[in-house]
Amino acid sequence: MTEFQVLAIPICFVLGMGIIKILDGAGAAIRRREQAELHWLPFIWAFIILVFQLQFFTILWNLHLDDKTWTWTSYGLILIHPFMYFLATSLLWPSPSDNRTDNLRDDFDKHGRWAWRSSLVLCSWQLFSTSRRMGRRGRRSSTRTYWTSS
Fold first, then answer.
1. Among 12, 35, 45, 99, which is 20 to 30 Å from 27 by CA?
2. Rounded Cα–Cα distance for residues 4 and 10 (Å)
């Protein structure tokens, strides 16, 4: 195994846990539809966070093309993303033990705002780091590095 493959295992594990949490939360909300009124907003945000997680997985998949020496700092900065996505999915749905929730919209107003705030921070950070990287390497070489296979 290469160094990157070893480092990618915990990242993929946390991303997988986040995806499971999204699907499990959606299933639990649908099962509790008689006790709690469904609302479209948590489902839309769950879909958006799911797309973000899948996008991050594809970016991670293409990172092996970079001949980079991994340090704890660079690895930690990449590892923050799946943890923040997992935090966002944890805040998106009501907890299974919370029987007081009678409306998904009320629970989203109470806890879900932190989910979209953490997603917004991650998106801003990705845009900033991508624009910084593109400025350093030039637009053309950065695109070619991530989207071609060698």
1. 12
2. 11
Sign of the CA dihedral running 56, 124, 41, 31: positive
Asked whether residue 5 carries a pLDDT value surpassing 70, the answer given is yes
**Domain count across the chain:** 1
User: How far is residue 29's CA from residue 40's CA, in Å, rounded to a whole number?
Assistant: 11
Which residues touch 86 (CB under 8 Å, ≥6 apart)? 14, 17, 18, 21
Q: Which tokens go with 54? A: 């899948």
**Contact yes or no for 63/14 (Cβ under 8 A):** no
d(CA 111, CA 25): 14
Residue-number span of the structural domain to which 77 is assigned: 3-147
Model confidence at 124: pLDDT above 90: no
pLDDT tens figures, 95-104: 766 666 677 7
**DSSP H helices in the chain:** 3-31, 40-62, 72-92, 104-107, 113-137, 139-147
CA 94/CA 108 separation, integer angstroms: 8
